Every structure is written in structure tokens, then in C-alpha cells.
Amino acid sequence: MQDSNTSIDIASINEKIERESAFVDILSSEMKKVIVGQKHMVERLLIGLLGQGHILLEGVPGLAKTLAINTLSQAVHGSFSRIQFTPDLLPADVVGTMIYNIKLNDFSIKKGPIFANFVLADEINRAPAKVQSALLEAMQEKQVTIGEETFILDKPFLVMATQNPVEQEGTYPLPEAQVDRFMLKTVIDYPDMADEQMIIRANLKGSFEKVNPVVSLEQIARAQQAVREVYMDEKIEKYILDIVFATRFPEKYRLENLKPLISFGASPRGSINLATAAKCYAFIKRRGYVVPEDVRAVVHDVLRHRVGITYEAEAENVTSEDIINKIVNEIEVP
Predict the structure, then answer these.
(1) Which of 191, 218, 245 is the last residue of a domain?
(2) CA 315 from chain center: how many Å?
(3) CA–CA gap between residue 258 and residue 253 (Å, rounded)
(4) CB 251 within 8 A of CB 298
(5) CA 3 from chain center: how many Å?
(6) Does residue 254 have a pLDDT over 60?
(7) pLDDT at residue 112 greater than cutoff 90
(8) 242 and 186 in one domain?
(9) Quick one: the chain helix, strand, coil %, rounded to 5?
(10) Do the Cβ atoms of 258 and 323 come closer than 8 Å?
(11) Which of 267, 264, 322, 332 lies closest to 295, judged by CA?
């Protein structure tokens, strides 16, 4: 009897998710007007938006990172702001400050660029720790305190931070504890030749199509709620936990050779984000339940910045990606 109940439930969840996720295709095709290729990045932006998380994008300059989040904010009826991080930036430049008004003989509050639905933190590793922590506090708490007043940030609230892996001059690497606040770390590669040809043509013509707002903020809020209802079986939960625990105790999973290569494993935030991202991925694929492939699709983006590697791993040219690959290949799929 239990089985039939579950299947009825899953059928109704499936129907609901299919209804609620109808906008995903519309939103993707609207973004494709401007963003050529980069399907992976667009998908990850949607996962961040639906999972109420934030994204760290790493890639060389010129791969449409800024353009992507700007396009997303236009396609969703949302506000967009961009903060260019520099070594002389102050926390007040991000969150806002108190300004003395001579006419009123009083202080008034000037809100900073953090007060938007979509915030692009460009080259986050160029700003000193004080500024990074001001931004990360806003990301975590979803609120900002200026003077004695606390302001709740608008919903949805998505921060997309970018960092350039090429230059290390004059940069302040993000500490591990702060990188952990990002739900996903996505590494972007160059477009393939056919896509780049289309990019050249569109740029030379100067004929970019206008992006129309096709999704409302209410639809996004509903979708964020619907994502929580996506069914995740206990076997999938166990699969996620096995992957995360293997980053901490590889020897318990017949991966003794990884022990000297890992300096620290993923935190519980990693488990939560892996489960959330898998649900979001299922939602984007318009399914009301999570399958192991959903977990495998997002595992690199969720864990690559949460697995620390030792000097020994660096000496052997082993990256956190390689470690995740070995773990995913070893852990039994339910």
C-alpha cells in the first residue's frame, strides 16, 4: 500500500513541477539571444537563482560573465547592480553609508549597490578582506546594517562573483571559509569554434537582439518554493552523504590513496548545497524527483571549492577536480 501512496505523491509533485518549471525554457531561450554557447554557465546561474544561493565564476576575461548576469536580470523583471572590486574599495562602497544632510541637520542613509536583485561582484579577489567580508555577510544574512538600522535585502537576491585565475598580482585570495559561502563555483572555458564564429558575426553586425523581461519576480519566488518540494529519496540522500563523507574520510571508502592529498573535506554546507543543487537541476530538467545523474551533474560545481588539497597533491599536479572524480567513480550509485 505504501508504494502506491508514494507513486501517487510523486505523480502529483511531477505535475506541479512541470507546471512551475515551464518558464525555464522561455528564460533560457531569451538569454540565448545574447549569450552564445556557455550553456553550462546559464544553467548554473539558474541553479543559483532557484536554490537561493550565490555563484563564484572563474574564467579568463572576455567570456561573457558580466553579460550573463546582466542578461538574466533583464529577462527576469529584476534590478541589477555591478560592483567593480578594487584594492581601494571600502565596505561602505558596497553596503552604503550615513550621509550628513546640512538642510535637515541630520544624517540620512545612502544605500549601496548591494541593494539589488542581481549583484555582480566583479573580480572579487581584487578587494581587501574587509570589503569581501562585508559582501559575504550580506550574502549570508540577506540583510545589511547601516548605522543603527538594519535593512532586509530584496528577494530574489543573487550574487555572482567573478575571479580571474590568470593574474595574481595585487589580488587578495578569498579565504576558504568565505569561499564556502558560495553555493557553486563554476569554471568557465572558452567557447568552441562554431560558437565563437557566431559571437564574431553578432559583434561585427552590432545587432544584438533586445532581451525582454519574460519572467516575473513572483514566478521566481514560486519556483524557489516548488524546488523545495522536489522529491528526494533516502537512497539519494545517502549517496550525497557518501560523496561528502568520502572527502573527509577517504579511507572508509577504499580510497586510502586520497588521504595524503586532501587537507580538508567538504563542510555540512557542502551537503546541503549538493542536495539543493541536485533538486534545482531536476527542476530545470522539469522532473519532480531527483535521480543520481542530477547529483553527478552538479557535484563538481558544489564541491570543487570545498575540498582542500595538500602540498603533496600540488606537487603531484592533483587538483580538487581529480579528487572529486575519483570519489564519484568509486562511490556506489543507488
Answers:
(1) 218
(2) 30
(3) 10
(4) no
(5) 36
(6) yes
(7) no
(8) no
(9) 50, 15, 30
(10) yes
(11) 332
